Amino acid sequence: MVSGPGCPICVTANADLDKAIALSQIPGVIITTFGDMLKVPGSRSSLQKAKAEGAEVQTVYSTMDALEIAEDNPDSSVVFLGIGFETTAPTIAASILQAEEKGIKNYYVLSLHKLCPPVIRALIDSGEVELQGLVCPGHVSAIIGSHPWEFIAADYGIPCVVSGFEPLDILQCVDMLVEQVEKGQSRVEIAYRRGVRPEGNRQALELMERVFEPCPARWRGIGVVADSGLKLRDKYQSFDAEANFEFEPGAAVEPAGCICGDILRGVKTPDDCRLFGKACTPENPVGPCMVSAEGSCSAHYLYGGGIGG
Questions:
Q1: How far apart, in whole angstroms, are the C-alpha atoms of residue 179 and residue 184?
Q2: pTM of the predicted protein model
Q3: At what angle do helices 89-102 and 202-211 cross, to 10 degrees?
Q4: Of the candidates 24, 57, 11, 53, which has an alpha carbon nearest to the alpha carbon of residue 38?
Q5: Is residue 255 part of a domain?
Q6: Domain around 162
Q7: What is the pLDDT of residue 293?
Q8: Of 121, 177, 182, 199, which residue is least crowded by CB atoms under 10 Å?
Q9: For position 5, what pLDDT does the model report?
Q10: What ranges in the chain are assigned the alpha helix state H?
Q11: Is 163 helix (H, G, I), strand (E, B) or coil?
Q12: If we measure between CA atoms, which residue out of 118, 124, 117 comes closest to residue 158?
């Protein structure tokens, strides 16, 4: 049984990280991002290194912080890095609508969002990992509900349970999955009913649908998956960083020896990596799986038994 599809920082491909770093090199641009993005290595640098070399990179705690920075710096262009799953997309959509309402012309979003159900289908179709059950993510499901996971049970016969994050939530989730397996059943259940409804959060979904539309997206270790990303609709192109700035991120390069992609797909574990705990540590991460607090390598390093993927 596995949970998926990993943390959004880990699955963001180097090609996308390189875009953010290239944008930070443009004079007059202020990059705003959550703090855990700073140390994530791209092909040749990181936002932390770019900041040390003079780029304007500011840590924020919400999209509204980024919007406030744009208001306070009308002569600069403020770019928010839109990295995350369905969980963060509604708040970013709300910031764009608020910028439009307030007439803020110097606020932009680099949309690198990822959608979970399409990539789960791609992972199952790859046949690399044999699944007996799937722990569906509670944070994503709080937005999209449990219905979008039903294809897994219907098309592939794999039991699914939406889990919360407390120890008892996870134990209950595993118990419900084991019961389905033992009874030869496959359906979608919710073990996190205090946070997830089958239909999801309608208001959040409407915000996403109003501002974004699905597009192909590149996932680390997987490649491009159709309709697994989000781009701004034509109506909101004036807030799209890619549409409004000219920049060249260069060819993406993966760090030699790093197997983050294999770990994220569940075909290898951190112990299989020759860099793990040696050249790659939380203080000096080579790949994103060691950077994020949710990353497999970071968890395995800190607790001696992290769950791959």
A1: 9
A2: 0.91
A3: 60
A4: 57
A5: no
A6: 116-190
A7: 76
A8: 182
A9: 54
A10: 8-11, 14-24, 47-52, 63-72, 89-102, 116-126, 138-144, 150-156, 167-183, 202-211, 241-244, 260-265, 296-303
A11: strand
A12: 124
